[in-house]
Each structure stands twice: as structure tokens, then as C-alpha cells.
Amino acid sequence: MEQSAQQAQQLDHLATAPPLSRSTFAAFGAPGLGGPAPAAPPDPRPILELEGEEYEDELDSLGDWVDDFLLPVYGTEVTTASPWCLRWQEHDDVVAWLHALWLAYQQHKDPEAGLSGMFVWHRDFLTHAIAAIRAPGGPLSACMTSPERPAHRILPGPPSSTRIGKAKPQNNETPGELEPGEPAS
Questions:
Q1: Could you give the angle at which helices 52-65 and 92-109 cross, rounded to 10 degrees?
Q2: Is residue 31 within 8 Å of 37, Cβ to Cβ?
Q3: Is the model's pLDDT at 159 over the cut of 60?
Q4: How far is CA 43 from the centre of its chain?
């Protein structure tokens, strides 16, 4: 009987959680184990949604990364098949692509991404983004195609879409059909 009582006491002791303040994990900041809850990382926002000084600061940081890391390592020769623009910051689509690439780089170089994080960044992000930005028919195609001839030109985009109101069809009309003599808008 005495042995059964000791086993019951031991089971009760093992089933009771230790006080959180005495956790050996408290120093590591593990949530729920006595450490402070980690601060939530800021929500990344696409650079084109930023305005004013916030946009300028983000563009400066992006420019540092592009000039100090991306181009020296991955900036292949400028040719007609792989154009570049010294004023890439004026091409909104290029800024958006490079910013997304930079955010992905930051995420995948983090130790939490694991040992294959940078491989994933190369495979899933870098190759595709650079191919889209520097494509012969891409956003920089009217810019520098030879280092001896620096050039910059923003290609015009398509005009705004025409909105068509949805009118309720009368009689046997099909929606969007013009009445005889009605001017096309």
C-alpha cells in the first residue's frame, strides 16, 4: 500500500506543470515557457504602397542592397538580351520587382529559413525576377543595352480601361449591345 501511495504522489508531481517563472527556457524568450512573448515582426508592405519619406527611406535601402549586393554578384553583362538602367528607380515596375526580391532575400537568409533558405531564394525568386526585369522585351528594354551607350526611357503603358455599365437587357437585346444610331463610347 505504501508503494502505491508513493507512485500516486510521483504521478501527481509529474502531472503538475512547473511554475512558469522557474522555467529553464525563460532566458530564451520562449512564449508560454516563462519568457516574454516575442515582438511580432512588422507587416511588410509593397514599396509602391508607401508614400513620402517612408517611400524614400525604403527606396534608399533598396538602392543600397541593389548597388552593394545584387548587381556586383548577379548583375551580368549588359546586352540587348539583358538590358539595365542606371535610373531603375524611375521604373515603378522594376522598383516593385526588386523590392519583392529584396524582401524575399531578407526572409530566406534568416536562420529560421534553414540551411536551404538561400537555395530556395535563388531557385524561386532570384532567377524569375531577374529574367522578368532584364528580359529583351521587359521594362528596361528601351534603356541601356550597351555600357558604352547609357540610355533611359520609360515605356508608355496601356491606357486606362473603359468601364462599361451593365444595363438590364430589354426585349431581346444582349447586354452591351448598342442601339441603332447610338454613339459608341
A1: 70
A2: yes
A3: yes
A4: 11
Distance separating alpha carbons of residues 91 and 85, to the nearest angstrom: 9
Q: What is the DSSP letter of 60?
A: H
Distance (Å, whole) CA 66 – CA 44: 18
* Torsion angle defined by CA atoms of residues 68, 72, 77 and 78, in that order, rounded to the nearest 10 degrees: 0
What is the rounded distance in angstroms from the CA atom of residue 175 to the CA atom of residue 169?
6
Tens of pLDDT, residue by residue over 13-60, are: 666 655 554 444 444 444 555 555 556 556 788 999 999 999 999 999
Three-state secondary structure along 13-51? HHHCCCCHHHCCCHHHCCCCCCCCCCCCCCCCCCHHHCC
Report the distance separating Cα 104 and Cα 118, nearest Å. 10
pTM listed for this prediction: 0.65
pLDDT tens sequence across 117-157: 999 999 999 999 999 999 999 999 999 998 888 899 988 88
In three-state secondary structure terms, 53 is helix
d(CA 169, CA 185) in angstroms, rounded, equals: 18
